[in-house]
Each structure stands twice: as C-alpha cells, then as structure tokens.
Design a protein that fits this description.
The structure holds three protein chains of three kinds.
Chain A lengths: L3 E10 L2 E11 L4 E5 L6 H9 L6 E6 L6 H4 L2 E4 L11 H11 L5 H10 L13 H13 L5 E5 L7 H14 L5 E6 L2 H4 L5 E6 L2 E7 H8 L3 H8 L3
Helix pairs in contact in A: 5-6
Chain B lengths: L10 H15 L7 E2 L2 H8 L3 H13 L3 E4 L3 E4 L3 H25 L6 H15 L1
Antiparallel strand pairs in B: 1-3, 2-3
Chain C lengths: L1 H38 L5 H38 L3 H4 L6 H31 L3 H20 L2 H29 L6 H29 L3 H6 L3 H33 L5
Helix pairs in contact in C: 1-2, 1-4, 2-4, 2-6, 4-6, 6-7, 6-9
The chains are: A alpha/beta, B mainly alpha, C mainly alpha.
Chain lengths: ~230, ~120, ~260
C-alpha cells in the first residue's frame, strides 16, 4: 500500500490555486524529491499531508487514512522554519519527543548529539543557528516513522552542513519508511533520490525514477529540471 | 574511496564503473569483504537503494558475490578480474585513439608522441 | 496525552510566570520596609520620597499582575499554536480538543496562582506595619461578619462562577486569536476586530435572553424570592448557564478554526 496517496487534490487560497488536481503515490522504502521552484505548491502539499491544512477538494491519504491524530503518529516532519521553543535544551526536547511519540529512539538521538559534541543541557537560544537546525533534524530523524516529510532541509546552509544533513537522512531512515524531501536545490540532493516529482504551478509536471530520468535524458535531474522550467 | 559523480547518466551506472575500476586495479583485492550497503551509501552520499542496485549489477556480472549471513565479497576468480581489467583498458585505448583522431593525428604518429612524453618526464 | 500536554504547558508558562510572581513578592517585601520607614520618626525627606515611590510601584504592580497573567496566557496560545511553534504542536498526535483543553486548564491554574500571589503580596506588605495592621483588622472583622451569614455552599458557588468566568475569558481570547490568525496578514488587527464583534454579539445575546427570560415573565423572579438563598440559587444557575453557553460558542469557533482554517506562515 502507498504510504502517501493524493487523488485529484486541489487547494486554493482565495483566488490563488496552490495545488490543482494532484495525483500522486509514494511507495514505502523510497526517497522522493519533491522538486519545484518557489511557489510551486511544495509546502502546501506537505502541509496537507501533515493536516496543517484542510484539502479544498480531492483526497489525501497517509497510510490509507485521512490526516488526523492517527496519521500524525506515522509522520515525522521537519518544517522549513526553525520553530523549536528556544527556552528548551536538547535534553528537554528529547523528553518532549519521547513523551509524545512512541517511536522516538532516544538512544539514537543521544548518539547523534554526542557526535556533534553539543552541550545537551544548553538552552537552544544559546546555540548557534546552525546547531539549532541540526538539533531539529536530529529530533526528526531519531523517530522510527513511516513517512518523513522534510521541507527545504538544505535551504540556506553551507556545503559542510548540507553533507551532514544528507548523511543524517540516509543513515537514519529505515527501509520500510519513505522520505519526501522538498527542495528547489536539486543538484545538491539528486544523488540521494530514488524518485523525483516535479511540481509546476500546483500541478505535477513530471514523476519518474531519478536514475531512469538520468538514463533517458543522459543528463542530471538538475539539468532536466532546468529544461522543464525554462523561463 | 573518493566518490565523484558527473551529471550525465544514472548514478548506479557510475557506481558500477567506479567499483569495477577499483577491483581491476586491485584497490579492492580478490576475496575482500565489502562494507554494508548503508555504510557504502553514506560514504558515497547516495541513496542506499541506488547502491544496492549497483551491487546487484556487479553480482550479476560475477565480480562480487554474496554470502547470506556475512556480507558481500569481491570475487576470487582472477579470470573474471583480468577480463574486466582488459575490457577497461581497451575502452581507455579506444577513447585515447578517438581523441587523437579528433586532433588530426595519424596512427603512425602516435608512437613518436608517446616517446616524446617519456623524454619530457625524464627531464623533469 | 492531556496530562503530558498540561505538564509541558505548565513548564513552558512557568518560565515567565514564576519570575513575574517572584518579582511581585519582592516588590511587596520592599514596600513593607518602605512603609515602616514612613511610619518612623525623624526620617529624611529623600527617603520618604523613595519609600513613597516604592509603595506606589507596589500598588501599580498589584494591579498590573492580573493584566500580565492574562496577557501572558493569551500570548502563549498565540505563540504556541498560531505562530512558528504551531508547526511542532499541530503535528503532534494530539487532537485540537486536547490542545484547547490543556491551554484552558493551565491558564485557569495560573489565574488561581495569580490570585493567591496577590493575596500573599497584601499579607507581606501589611506584616507588622502599624496602620495597615489596623486596616487588616477591620477587613478581618468585615470578613467575619460576612462569614456568619455565609456558608460553604455559597463560597463554592462563587468559586465555581469565578472559574467559569476565567474559562470563558480564556476561550474568548482563543476564539478571536484563532479567527484573526486565519487571515493572511494583519492577524492581530483581525483578532481584535473579531473580539469586538464577538463582544457585541454576546451583548445582543444577553439582551435577548434576558428579555425573553426576565422581560416576558418578570414575575418569575419576584414570585420565588422567599429568602435570599433560594433567589441566589436561581440567579447562580442562570448566570452559570449563560457563561457556559458563551464558553461553548467560543470553544466551537476555536476548534473549527484550528482544524479547518489554520494559516501558519
């Protein structure tokens, strides 16, 4: 069964249509790139899967269910923004995640924090921006979830941090889970993708296996993307 | 192992190519045990499924074999390794010849060129 | 999950509430000392002036304490559920109803704590200070006389009404904030507009209900007033029903907007 399934999914904000008749299926065990320029509907799709927005028409199912308390147990979500409460320390956060998520692997989180040589007793507001972002990623990837939704995980980070983020994603996701990475920085992530979905103005412009796409076109996903979205 | 991927062609194909070269050159010796797929994938910065696909391809070609419980090993069959080595060498020569041709050199001039490069090297 | 949420909520709010209350008690202690100074003889004018200022700060502080705790609780709702932290909170496997209840319960607890803190501040400020002490005695006697006609039932009823009013107040803030923050911009402005509109509707509702209940059959109240307690009981039940109706409306608005109209930036 597909972990995420959209059929005829449409969402508008006032007169602006953010998503239009999106049909999409994501199978378990895949790392999927949700690729598109800014404003193409990536974040809207992720918010709908998370239940942060209600669909206008059509349907979105997570693990066969409509978004709600049950589906939220399956999803581990990394928001685009840094939004952890800054009065908490990394240790507080581990307690918080362990409290609310049965699938939180505290030992794994502690191991990752140890490798970062981060003071887990220090409040987040006293950490650097880069460290805070890493702590948030660690909390998300330390869950043994069925679906990871990562919204722009590498936006605005330096190459070393980018490698750290991608490495953390690859080494933590379990083979029965799926990862959806939304980004417009395709060259940086395409090596880790199984499948790619191009979103353009709220519609699916292309959905394919990443290696098939490279084989068919004889060029990188990034170059294919540039052709599809040529201005 | 250093991993660099170029933009053209599928990633799994590039991994197959890279591992073939390592085996042919002896960087990965006959009978050597390969790390776990996930470890390899992390070190190459690629998707584990992609790496898995590359290893399956190498298995199909007989360069790598799997033992169910203990992992994957480089073949000990030197015949296969040698044929891969020759195939890679032939391909390099073909590429060399075609680029020389593109520069307008004739086959007979190539020996002279090689000798020239050798004397350059000695002077250094 | 409600218990865990409440525990988390208490920890998060205590980060601001405990220092605020601590500060209030500190100011009370300082005001107590200042009052003793002013009570004494041959004190230089400057010290009297400073003492006076301290006492004024205490008075204003006591007044501000209530506002601060209401403000902190409303902002907690906004920052935690309607701003960036909302990305974390609304993706927890917790229903919107649990979220609202945890906020209502924790706010009410803090309001009670604030009231206790205010009483404590008054006690601290009047400890062993001559003229305040006599004031305290008069107050004490007043309470005692009240206590004579009082019984436990009346006290409980007043408490229930206070708690219900506190809940209604919290929910009315939550409803207006939730509606206001469903707009794409000027979220705070729309929140205030919503509050005003809701207040007008509330007044119209009260007017209508009172007109129907009291206006059409005014004899209803006159007829049954045999003694103070039975009249009071009727009024109490009536007021509680009105507050509960208002609270339920605010609750439904809040739940609907959090579920269907959430608009995080």
């Amino acid at each position: 069964m597909a972990i995420l399934k959209c059929s005829g999914l449409t969402k508008s904000f006032g007169r602006v249509t953010a998503l239009e008749a999106v049909d999409l299926e994501v199978e378990s065990g895949r790392i999927v790139g949700l690729l598109g320029p800014n404003g193409s509907g990536k974040t809207t799709l992720i918010k709908l899967a998370n239940g942060l927005l209600a669909p206008g028409s059509g349907e979105i199912l997570v693990g066969g269910k409509k978004p709600g308390t049950e589906t939220k147990k399956l999803i581990s979500f990394l928001p685009e923004r840094q939004c952890l409460p800054d009065w908490m320390s990394a240790r507080d956060l581990m307690g918080f995640y362990a409290d609310f998520y049965d699938d939180f692997d505290r030992a794994a989180a502690e191991e990752m924090l140890k490798r970062l040589e981060l003071d887990t007793g220090k409040k987040l507001k006293h950490l650097s921006k880069g460290s805070r972002e890493k702590v948030q990623l660690i909390m998300v990837m330390a869950r043994r979830a069925k679906l990871y939704l990562l919204d722009e995980p590498i936006g605005g980070v330096d190459p070393a941090a980018r490698d750290y983020i991608l490495e953390t994603i690859i080494s933590n996701y379990n083979p029965e889970a799926s990862v959806i990475i939304s980004t417009h920085l395709i060259a940086d992530v395409e090596r880790v993708l199984d499948d790619v979905v191009f979103l353009n103005k709220g519609r699916v412009a292309l959905a394919s296996s990443a290696d098939d796409l490279r084989e068919r076109h004889g060029k990188s996903v990034d170059m294919v993307f540039r052709e599809v979205f040529k201005c | 192992m250093e991993w660099n991927f170029d933009s053209g062609g599928p990633i799994y194909g590039q991994i197959v190519e890279k591992l073939k070269r390592s085996i042919a050159s002896g960087e990965l010796g006959p009978g050597e045990r390969l790390p776990a797929v996930r470890e390899l994938a992390v070190s190459a910065g690629v998707n584990p499924n992609t790496f898995q696909r590359a290893l399956s391809e190498l298995e199909r070609e007989g360069l790598v074999y799997a033992i169910r419980t203990s992992g994957r090993y480089v073949t000990e069959d030197r015949g296969i390794i040698d044929s891969v080595r020759r195939e890679l060498a032939r391909r390099s020569v073909r590429e060399f010849l075609s680029s020389m041709e593109a520069l307008g050199f004739k086959r007979e001039e190539l020996h002279g060129l090689i000798d020239l490069v050798d004397t350059d090297k000695k002077e250094e | 999950m409600l218990g865990r949420l409440i525990r988390h909520e208490l920890r998060a709010t205590s980060v601001t509430m405990l220092p605020v209350m601590g500060l209030m008690l500190l100011v009370s202690a300082m005001a107590n000392l200042a009052l003793r100074f002013m009570d004494g003889k041959d004190v230089p004018g400057v010290l009297v002036l400073i003492s006076g200022i301290v006492v004024i700060i205490f008075g204003v502080g006591l007044f501000a304490l209530g506002f601060v705790s209401v403000y902190v609780m409303a902002m907690r709702f906004r920052n935690n559920l309607l701003k960036d932290e909302g990305y974390i909170m609304h993706t927890l496997p917790v229903s919107v109803h649990t979220h609202i209840w945890s906020k209502v319960i924790v706010s009410t607890l803090w309001y009670a704590a604030t009231a206790l803190c205010a009483v404590l501040s008054l006690i601290v400020v009047s400890l062993d200070v001559g003229f305040i002490k006599s004031l305290g005695q008069t107050l004490g006697e007043l309470l005692k006389t009240l206590g004579d006609i009082n019984n436990l039932e009346l006290l409980t009823e007043v408490l229930v009404m206070l708690v219900l009013s506190a809940i209604l107040m919290s929910l009315s803030f939550y409803a207006s904030l939730s509606v206001g923050h469903s707009f794409a911009s000027r979220k705070m402005l729309f929140s205030i507009v919503t509050f005003v509109v809701m207040f007008i509707f509330w007044c119209l509702f009260l007017y209508g209900v009172n007109y129907i209940v009291l206006g059409i059959r005014p004899e209803r109240f006159d007829l049954h007033i045999d003694d103070f307690m039975s009249a009071w009981r009727l009024i109490f039940a009536y007021i509680c029903a009105l507050i509960t109706a208002g609270g339920a409306a605010c609750y439904l608005i809040t739940a609907y907007f959090l579920q269907k109209k959430l608009n995080l930036e």
